[in-house]
Design a protein that fits this description.
The chain contains 15 helices and 39 strands. By secondary structure, it is α+β, with helices and mostly antiparallel strands. The strands form 8 sheets. The protein has an 8-stranded parallel β-sheet. Strands 16, 17, 19, 21, 22, 23 and 25 form a 7-stranded antiparallel β-sheet that branches. Strands 28, 32, 34, 35, 37 and 39 form a 6-stranded antiparallel β-sheet that branches. A hairpin with a 2-residue loop joins strand 29 (about 595-600) and strand 30 (about 600-605). Helix 7 (about 130-135) packs across helix 8 (about 140-160) and helix 8 (about 140-160) runs parallel beside helix 10. The radius of gyration is 28 Å and the shape is flat.
Length: about 750
């Protein structure tokens, strides 16, 4: 039997973040983000006194009652405080106030109640200053930390019997390169597997190992790879007193179902209080989930990822187990339609156990009478035993029902992509009827279900019978328009864009199946846009995607320096900022791009910066700079970046930019007007603080034009992306050290 078969059967587990950070109740990153001195933070260990009557068994019982099959406990988080009896480092629960080995108690409870045992361990330890300075600048401290990591994991893998899962975290290295080498990860994992031959190891030692761990999102790896999405119940991992932004049970179930349909697991987190108790809101939500799992859990456990499950059905997502499929109803319609199936030997409502009759059948479509399903059922599930499992995905997108979208599921703005999309202002109309309506224009996009297989960005989705789309648009530029459509009869169609009929014709070759039409390089101007199907009354849209064609400003074209501690006011013009930086940090003869400077992370100099971070445009490592890879001194200084645009004429062009920290941007020494969030305004005059894509107008002179960027904190999470509206009259000058003379 496959030693990881239990993981594929489980589909649902509990994550537990608990430690001395539960005392200040500001989350597990409070030592770092609140800049607490280590010696002061470590005093929390003397206050960490869970009552004697508390036992980790309470968590394990709660997990089991929720329908979870395994649990993962944070044995040590980034703060370096261990919940077990470590002989390697006395900063642990046995040698401080609790005088208890909570890992031993947790493992014992899991075994008693039949849950698989997972141990979380942070490779990184903030008790060591080299987590800031890095292995190159502080090799002795770094090696001490790595040796401690190896030896503590030896303890965990030796002293607690069989461990089913090792959940690494914190495998980041300042500078972002050769992380696995610096952690000696291959040697580490070889030792772990020698001590625990059947253990599962995740991918956060910077080696792929056994399974992937997307965080706070559901992104399935290629088929065949084991995976697990970890998510919080509110917005925090460790207990955070003021965080009451809890997800509903229905939202969490939707996440669980989506993981199961792609053959993955959901690891759902709880953040107990310092006394070990679980917040009441978490308990109530888990109870609701547990009640649903008792009735419908068979649709989750052991689910398989197939072409049928990855296709979408308008009524809801489908999971599969052997020759049975499970349709999870997002909306109650009657009849309930399943595309891709024509015959079934059994149809059952899991909520009640009642058999459901077939209302009608036709080629590749099964209509089920949903009237016996109680209207009070929460996300009801229909089990269908098929005579023959469909092989093709192309037949499976279906349903004739009108869909009205939640605002958060609507589409893409300019260069933004999944996860960070600002809604367009106004409404999306489908054949004259409201399909989606923007709220305040600030809602971030949730990743929609895959309305059109192969679409990579968020999509507008409406009833597939909509013959026309009409919507407001505020980002002028050149786009490729991708349209998903379905027609139930063969024939040709033509498209009219803003009343003008396009010359091209498209042939419908697969009636009843989704098709994609691609209209390349269309200029869209600000205003209302109308797209209409001509010459085919039966054809309708179900999805739309807009891909912008903007010129990337690649990473290697930026020169970056920093971070520096500064006291000057960023509201000064760009040239004054540079002069002040030179005066404070430069050699006596003025700024020298070849010189090294004493920055907050050691010696720094102008250099090209590679990046491997993600960004809302999806191509960050080709379009901007990532200060966090170079400048881990978050919140303590400023970073600078410079690039040159060469224009063959005097002109105004547009740039699309994204900032996830406070910044100013200068063009030829003049500060550019930006956009900043009302609750994210820096005190020193930052113009940009967006966390979303914005459009900036650039007035270019003939010849060289300097783009100069000043960040306001540098370090963790400091990303910047920059695109130019496509134009042949502007080139991006490759950056060299000689040119950085300012």
């Amino acid at each position: 039997m496959n030693k990881f078969a239990w993981f594929n059967e489980a589909r649902f587990g509990m994550f537990i973040h608990w430690g001395i950070y539960s005392i200040p109740a500001q989350g597990e990153w409070t030592l770092w983000k609140d800049k607490i001195p280590v010696t002061e933070y470590n005093r929390y260990a003397d206050q960490f006194l869970p009552p004697k009557e508390f036992s980790p068994e309470e968590w394990v019982i709660l997990a089991k009652e929720t329908g979870m099959k395994y649990a993962v406990l944070t044995t040590r988080h980034h703060d370096g405080y261990s919940l077990y009896n470590s002989k390697v480092n006395p900063f642990n629960t046995v040698n401080t106030a609790p005088k208890r080995d909570f890992v031993a108690e947790f493992v014992s409870a899991c075994r008693e109640h039949g849950l698989r045992v997972g141990l979380y361990y942070s490779i990184m330890n903030w008790q060591h200053k080299s987590t800031l300075t890095g292995p190159i600048n502080d090799p002795e401290d770094w090696e001490e930390m790595v040796t401690e990591t190896h030896e503590q994991l030896r303890e965990l893998m030796t002293n607690y019997g069989k461990i089913d899962m090792l959940w690494y975290d914190g495998g980041v290295v300042p500078g972002g390169r050769d992380a696995a080498k610096h952690w000696r990860a291959e040697e580490l994992n070889r030792m772990v597997r020698t001590l625990q031959p059947d253990i599962m190891i995740n991918d956060r030692s910077e080696l792929p190992e056994d399974f992937s761990t997307p965080e706070q999102e559901i992104v399935a790896p290629p088929a065949g790879r084991l995976w697990e999405s970890c998510m919080t119940m509110n917005q925090s991992w460790g207990y955070t007193q003021k965080d009451n932004n809890y997800k509903s049970a229905e939202m969490i179930l939707q996440c669980l179902i989506r993981c199961a349909r792609y053959g993955g697991n959901l690891l759902l987190n709880i953040g107990p209080k310092a006394d070990g108790s679980v917040p009441e809101q978490s308990i109530n939500t888990l109870k609701e989930i547990g009640d649903w799992m008792k009735k419908n859990g068979e649709s989750i456990y052991g689910s398989q990822r197939t072409a049928f499950t990855e296709a979408n059905h308008v009524c809801g997502p489908v999971t599969q187990h052997g020759e049975k499929i499970y349709l999870h109803l997002n909306q109650m319609t009657n009849p309930v339609r399943i595309d891709g199936a024509s015959h079934a030997s059994e149809i059952t409502c899991l909520e009640t156990g009642a058999s459901l009759p077939v209302a009608a059948t036709r080629t590749n479509t099964l209509d089920i009478d949903g009237s016996p399903i109680p209207s009070s059922a929460v996300k009801p599930v229909i089990r269908v035993a098929l005579n023959e499992m469909p092989k093709s995905q192309t037949n499976m997108l279906g349903g004739q029902f009108e869909i009205k979208l939640e605002a958060g599921a609507a589409p893409v703005l300019a260069v933004a992509s999944a996860g960070r999309c600002k809604l367009p202002e106004g409404e999306l109309l489908a054949s004259g009827q409201l399909a989606a309506k923007a709220t305040d224009g600030t809602t971030e996009n949730r990743k929609p279900e895959d309305w059109c297989p192969g679409f990579t960005l968020p999509v507008y989705a409406c009833a597939k019978t909509a013959g026309a789309l009409d919507f407001a648009w505020k980002s002028s530029g050149i786009y490729t328009i991708k349209l998903g459509l379905i027609a139930y009869t063969s024939g040709k169609i033509r498209i009219a864009l803003n009343g003008k009929t396009l010359a091209q014709e498209w042939q419908i070759n697969n009636p009843g199946c989704p098709d994609t039409i691609c209209i390349p390089y269309v200029m869209l101007s600000e205003g209302r846009i109308n797209i209409q199907i001509l010459d085919h009354a039966d054809a309708g849209f179900y999805a739309m995607q807009l891909d912008p064609h903007w010129k990337k400003c690649p990473t290697e074209n930026w020169l970056v320096v920093g971070p520096f501690a500064t006291t000057f006011d960023s509201r000064q013009p760009g040239n004054s900022v540079l002069k002040e930086m030179k005066k404070i940090h430069g050699p006596e003869n003025g700024f020298n791009p070849r010189a090294e400077y004493d920055g907050l992370c050691g010696k720094v100099h102008w250099a090209d910066v590679a990046s491997s971070a993600e960004d809302p445009c999806g191509e960050f490592d080709q379009s901007g700079v990532d200060f966090s890879r170079r400048c881990p001194a978050w919140g303590k200084g400023v970073c600078f970046a410079r690039m040159v645009l060469v224009s063959d004429k005097k002109q105004t062009i547009e740039a699309a930019a994204y900032f996830d920290w406070w910044a100013n941007l200068f063009l030829n020494g003049e500060k550019l007007k930006g956009y900043r969030l009302a609750n994210e305004i820096a005190s020193d005059g930052a113009e940009f603080s967006t966390y979303e894509a914005v459009t900036i107008k650039l007035d270019l002179n003939i010849g060289e034009n300097e783009i100069f960027l000043k960040s306001h904190c540098g370090g963790l999470g400091s990303g910047f992306v920059f695109y130019l509206n496509q134009t042949d009259s502007v080139t991006i000058q490759p950056a060299t050290l000689e040119e950085a003379t300012c």
